[in-house]
């Protein structure tokens, strides 16, 4: 049994997806960390991986890595829209949440 996942070079906005991820990994050639968008879609009855370079991880400072399971319920376009919302809107302002005027990070 193989653990290899086939790759695909394109996704359709209207096609259903298995899952959506945004992860930070070491870039090829060890040139720092890069943020990648990974979408799992159906290709010929198998789950295939679409991977897109989103740029340097430092450009996403404060954005959490995402894993949105879809299980064929949502389209690629819906997942992209949801990710755009979750990437920045789910951040907690720790100072405000703790109701602190002064905050010293450890």
How would you describe what is shown here?
The N and C termini lie far apart (47 Å). The protein is 18% helix and 34% strand. With 106 residues, the chain is α+β, with helices and mostly antiparallel strands. It has one domain (17-98). The longest helix is centred in the C-terminal third of the chain and has 14 residues, at 76-89. A 4-stranded antiparallel β-sheet has the order 3-2-1-4, with helices on one face.
Low-confidence stretches: none
Estimate the helix proportion, in percent.
10-25%
Question: How far apart are the termini?
Answer: 47 Å
Principal-axes geometry comes out as: globular
Give the neighbour order of strands across the main sheet. Answer: 3-2-1-4
Rg, nearest Å = 17 Å
Mean pLDDT: 87
- Report the total helices: 2
Structural class: alpha+beta
Percent of residues in beta strands? Answer: 25-35%
H and E string:
EEEEHH
Number of strands: 4
Which properties best describe this structure?
106 residues; alpha+beta; 4-stranded antiparallel beta sheet; 2 helices; globular
